[in-house]
Amino acid sequence: MFEQIPQIFQSFFDIISSMMPFSGHLRLINVLEILILGFIFYKIYRFISGSHAEQLLKGILMLLLALVLSKLFNLQIIGKILESVVNIVIFSLVVIFQPELRRLLGYLGQKGFLNKHIINSDSESHIKALVEEIVGAVKHLSKSHTGALIVFHNSREMETVMEVGIQLNAAISTELLLTIFHPNTPLHDGAVVIKHNKILASGVLLPLTEDPKLSWQYGTRHRAAIGMSEISDATCLVVSEETGNISIAQGGKLTNISSLEELRSELEFLYGISESVQEKTEEEVKEKSKFRFQDFFSLEFPSITSVKKEENKK
Q1: For every residue of 25-82, which 3-state class applies, written as one string?
Q2: How far is the first Cα of the chain from the last one, in angstroms, to the nearest whole number?
Q3: Tell me: the pLDDT tens digits for 132-179?
Q4: Which of 15, 16, 49, 128 lies at 20 to 30 Å from 188 by C-alpha?
Q5: Same domain, 255 and 204
């Protein structure tokens, strides 16, 4: 079985060589194949970007590049060693990338995948409308100095935390969020948990951080946001009751949000419709990639407008 791997690579090299311009011609179908493969590789890289698998993939690509160079320069001894190493690595991929492969296969098998990725081009506008609902609520909460804590549920399980709260499973809207966090309502204490386009629960109690270096100026909401982000890949949005300041906690780190535009940028990046974050460096953006929603576009959901029309009819 191992002896077949070099033959596979040789066939791959022959195919690539046959498509090169110096072979005399480059057919349209070859260009189309290259574009399709490039798109697939780009999507796979985005899927694992920011995870440990990204570093492993870079290491594997370096090995393959070294193998290609050894073939081109006819370095037989180095080539044989690299072939043996690549053989082992290839048969170890299933074990190395097991979590990512399971996520990827589940992602591809989700209902509505083709509609959202190929047929339906309205998903981005739906998400932008959803982000505007959240930004609109945070704007009013910050202006009125109403304390709020919103947790964006990601891939890791949070069911045990949510058991304490009130289950809602409601569509996201500015009005609903403002109602939940109004001081005179029974649901304003605790956090609201959002997963993709739904408010799953409210009044959720979160674990507090035990970081002794944290400033005494931070209240219970900020400590709960940091504590939740320490034990999960959730993104926690906090509005301070005392100052009206907006903050985001990710990976145990609290970041101050200076404007609504910056908040909008953060949420659009979180929901996967933007590749950059306002006022953030490339390294910071790469770090934030760990917290992005991985399967949002595979969901089927109505537009915000249609949801509001249904509520008005009732």
Answers
A1: CCCHHHHHHHHHHHHHHHHHHHHHCCCHHHHHHHHHHHHHHHHHHHHHCCCHHHHHHH
A2: 65
A3: 999 999 999 999 999 999 999 876 556 667 777 888 989 999 999 999
A4: 128
A5: yes
